[in-house]
Amino acid sequence: MNSRLLFLITLIISFCSTFINAQWQKQTNGLPDTWNLGWAIDASDSNNILITTSSGLFGTTDGGGNWSKIEFPDTIIETAIDVSIINESHYWAATDLGKIIATTDAGKNWTVQFNDESKTQFMNYIEMFDEMKGVAMGDAPFPLQKKTAVFLKTTDGGNTWIQSSDTTLIDVYSGDTWRRLDFVNPKLGYFYESGITPQKLLKTTNGCENWQNTYYPGFKML
Known about the structure:
mainly beta; four-stranded antiparallel β-sheet; 32% strand; globular; 1 helix
């Protein structure tokens, strides 16, 4: 091969590698070195970000340059499985003991907004669209006892969470810690459920009041 052509190819590969690698930068300042799992991450803008891990909840206000641990009060001993951040001071978290908790002062004080073990013992999803409107989901109680998964919505910042009246999703759950659920807006959402065979990709267009099969063919887990 012509030496000039070889040099040009090598230069292009080097440039592309540098360009691609420059897109992602590892941000660890303030995060523990040994945390095993990251459950969820959410950002309200390019600076304010939350991440919940097996070592606790951490936040940054400078785009990940520095992270600080956000402590829960002694009365809240569980792990945040999902988080939602609206701005630099308003955060919500869904916990592994079925609670929704919230703060309006960047984590200095937390309030339990939802806690009903008869309805769910594992709250795995929360999404706030602004300071008032949001949705959340908890698995059907274990052991499965012909109860429905819990879909909740709020229009007052979580002061009240109203359960969906849908009773068709009996004994379904998220299937893994990283939820199979996401909402585009308070009305439109998708849920790939576990607990039903064959599994289905479901869709709601009215804020969890009804779920329809999308006729997604699904796949087999290896």
